[in-house]
Task: inverse folding
């Protein structure tokens, strides 16, 4: 089976750092994706991790621990425009299907 | 935006009527997907295609059919729409360009469907 868990909602302050966690238990694993989705819009690709460790891309970083079935997305220097939902998704062994968690709605306050 | 369009963008229909949603891509991507997104459930895969006339079921395929007669178009059909199919439908693509990598999916703008 596939089980991907993320917190439903988080709130943070502009300029701060926030960490969004994702845990997974899946029958196969070929990488983990993070997407950002603003209200009423399509998900947009943020990051992809297939090996353990931290991947940094500007203000956003993503971490993966395959042995723990755990990932997090780290957002630094939060801006109001970062208010969005963040979706964690696991890629299957064949590399052609994603299973998504329910998403974490992040609210950034002044 | 990976050259993906969806039509219509909004549709209101009545229970029992057939509905077809279209996904169109312009960059020769191999894989195309249909998802639905509902509050509390996140994105769930309905059907996907790995080539012309090659399709397979996803997690929530009951009540839906798909067709892909050419590379650029992937159609999702609700043969007899029900209120439980009220949702936002997203198309996604992957596996394009010279590398033919399948991993990263890019999403279309979505279609908001309401079944009364």
Result:
């Amino acid at each position: 089976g596939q089980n991907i868990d993320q917190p439903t909602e988080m709130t943070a302050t502009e300029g701060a750092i926030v960490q969004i966690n994702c845990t997974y238990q899946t029958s196969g694993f070929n990488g983990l994706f993070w997407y950002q989705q603003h209200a009423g819009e399509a998900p947009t690709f943020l990051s992809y991790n297939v090996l353990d460790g931290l991947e940094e891309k500007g203000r956003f970083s993503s971490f993966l621990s395959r042995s723990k079935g755990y990932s997090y997305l780290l957002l630094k220097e939060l801006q109001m425009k970062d208010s969005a939902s963040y979706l964690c998704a696991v890629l299957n062994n064949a590399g052609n299907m994603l299973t998504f968690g329910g998403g974490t709605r992040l609210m950034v306050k002044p | 935006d990976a050259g993906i369009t969806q039509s219509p963008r909004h549709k209101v229909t009545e229970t029992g009527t057939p509905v077809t949603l279209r996904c169109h891509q312009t960059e020769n991507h191999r894989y195309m997907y249909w998802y639905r997104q509902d509050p509390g459930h996140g994105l769930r895969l309905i059907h996907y295609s790995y080539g012309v006339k090659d399709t397979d079921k996803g997690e929530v395929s009951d009540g839906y059919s798909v067709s892909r007669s050419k590379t650029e178009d992937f159609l999702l059909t609700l043969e007899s729409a029900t209120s439980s199919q009220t949702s936002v439908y997203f198309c996604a693509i992957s596996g394009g360009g010279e590398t033919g990598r399948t991993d990263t999916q890019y999403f279309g703008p979505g279609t908001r469907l309401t079944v009364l």
Notes: Chain A touches chain B through 21 residues (CB under 8 Å). The CA atoms of residues 24 and 69 of chain A lie 5 Å apart. Chain A has no helices and eleven strands. The mean pLDDT of chain A is 95.
